[in-house]
Amino acid sequence: MCKMTFEELSGDYSAERMDTVAKALEEVLSLALPQGCITVGVYEAAKSLNVDPDNVVLCILATDDDDVKDVALQIHFTLIQAFCCENDISILRVNNTRRLAEILGGGTQGGEPMDLHCVLVTSPHSSSWKDPALSKVNRFCRESRCMDQWVPIINLPER
Fold it and tell me: Which of 48, 60, 96, 110 is most buried by its number of CB atoms within 10 A?
């Protein structure tokens, strides 16, 4: 159930709020990467979601302008979004795959380019992950759902 004030429900998110969420997302990814809590790639993400959806804490779908015309990718996104909504997994869309690649260490893995269209953040098995940045991103996703924006779009700023 969504409990928000009228001020929170009215209008779009401010640019300042969006920047705060984008920075929190960068922090989440930066912390999760060395812990091995990142799954990269549409097919790898689908496998991970199938095996252990309860371990996934965030799903990021990334596109650039050229990807909008890729019908197969859009079908994959639709299926992943539906699965995440059904399993109460927070979802974000990111419109800057180049910046996402920088955050994730260059966008290559073993010399091969990574498929950055779908990135999952999982919870470490060792303990329950209490990350304030992750809480901020998840709260933003929940609030967006309350405003019928099921997959909010975040613009990762260039550095």
Answer: 60
